[in-house]
Structure formats: C-alpha cells, structure tokens
Amino acid sequence: MKIIDTILIGLGNVGARYDLKNDHRTSHIKSLSGIKNYNLNLVIDINKKNEAIAKKYKVHYLSSIKSLNKYEIKNSLIVLAIPTVDHLKVFKFLSKLGIKKILFEKPIGKNLFETQKIIEICKKKKIRIYTNYFRRNLRIFLQIRKVLKKKKIGETISGKFEYDKYILNNGCHAIDLLNFFFDDKCDLEVTKIIKRVKENSGYLIDFIISNNKANFFFKCNSNLKIRNLKFAIYGTKGMITFDQAKGSTSNIIFYDKKIKITKKSNYEFENRQHIVYKNIFKTVVKHRMQKNDYYKNLLFPQKIMSELIEKKL
After folding, report:
1. Entry pTM
2. Distance CA 126, CA 287 (A)
3. 4-133, superfamily in CATH?
4. Given pLDDT bands bounded at 50, 70 and 90, which one contains residue 1?
C-alpha cells in the first residue's frame, strides 16, 4: 500500500483548531492523522504555543519553515494552511527545495498576479498542485451537478448565492462551486457589481455573474452569527436549493409535478476534510502532469474576484 509522507504548514483554524473540541474531521491535522495512506510526520507553525497540538497528534513540530532545509522533502505532499498573503513567499521557498506535490488552502494567491505566478512555477518545475475547494468532493454537490447536467430541472435560467464575508475568504467557494456545477467551462463573467464595501479584513461585494444562458446573483452575508452558504438555482422545470445552516439540506422541487426531494448532508460537512483527503489520494500518488484546463479551473475564482475588486461600479 502506498504511503505518502506529508508535511503540514500552519496550525490555525483550518490547520487544526476547527475541531479541537469536537468529533468532526474538518481540520487538516485531524483528517490526515486518521487516514493510514498519509504519514503526517512534520508540522510547522510560527506560534510555539501550537506545539502542544503537534504533541497531541504525535507529530514532530518545527517553529520555522527555514528548518526544512535540513530535511528531504522532495517526495512529500506539502499542505499549505497559512494566511493567503504569505502563500507566494512560502511557496517560492518550498519550490527551491524540490517539492513535487502541494495542496493550497483556498484561494491560491492573494490576487490574480500571485496565483498566475504560482501556477507558472508549478508548470516549469513540474509541481503537482491542488487547492482545497472541499465542496467538489462532497456527494451532495456531485449529485446537484448531475441533476443540472441531465437537465432534470430543465434549462437553467437564474440563480442566487449567499456567502459569508469576505470575497477572498468565502466568496471564492461560491464562485468555484458555480463553475463546478456547469462542468468547469469557465465561461462566466462579472456583468454587474451592485455593492462593494472595503473593510480592514476584506471586501463585501454583491454582484451578478452570467454566461450566455443565465444570470446568478451573489449576495454577501455580513452578519456572521449564522455561518452559512446557501443557494437556489432555477430551471424551466424546477429548482434546486441548498442551505448549510439548516442541516446542510438540499431540495429539488419540480414545478408541475409538485414533488420535493430533500436530502441532508450533515455528516459530510462534519467530516469534509477527511473526505477530501480520501478522494484525492489516488490523484496525489500519480505523477502525471496536470492539463491546461485544470490550471484554467484553478485560476477561475481568482480571475472573477480580481474583476470584482478592480472593476468600476
């Protein structure tokens, strides 16, 4: 059985803290530690207080990424779970050490230029790159994609997405998910910016993106008392809804037949990172190069977000 040596960089919320006090598997360290195909042998975090987390999982801890110079890491999977603003700088350092596999927390870069630079280096140095848009791996969204592809609700005519602030933090998930639903065609573009507010921590933006068949309204939820991603997609024969805050429930409603199909996916969301790692294992161990279409899909959310931030209202 193939075992992948794995190094986790970052023990913040998604790195470790999301499920320190529950039975969920939404963090990288808990998920990796629970899958025998991954040998998590090293974690790095500049906050030395987090060494206690590494000890809990019996993983060797380093406080500086520069210490990696002493290790052979060429065949390891690197999981980068640090603030997005530091991605490019840390990635450049890692690329000089000869890494061949890296999983980025989303988004890949803080802007389109940085994301393009990272992908260029990956192509040049034959580094296999992944990004943690975890919803692509969950069964509930794969089923919704299948319903849309088979046109069970007819032709898609419109949709509405509500995401938590900010656009770089959570809006990118919603943008990527819409692209995923429509076969990663990357043919969506910003057609209108309704509201844009800049705060110290990021942008709150309401906007419309469209393709040649439908318009999709995106609204930013600035009240985080209820953390949520919800959406409705309307077709000529029916509609699909999803509400993460209400038990991760999806509904397919057919207009004429008056039939409502309801599915809940709490378990998937409570174990989402574990599911991601199980799903990408076979992909990670293969060393074939990724195709240009894949890089285009990686860039797509960043391209849309760049347009949203730079376009005039």
Report:
1. 0.95
2. 9
3. NAD(P)-binding Rossmann-like Domain (3.40.50.720)
4. low
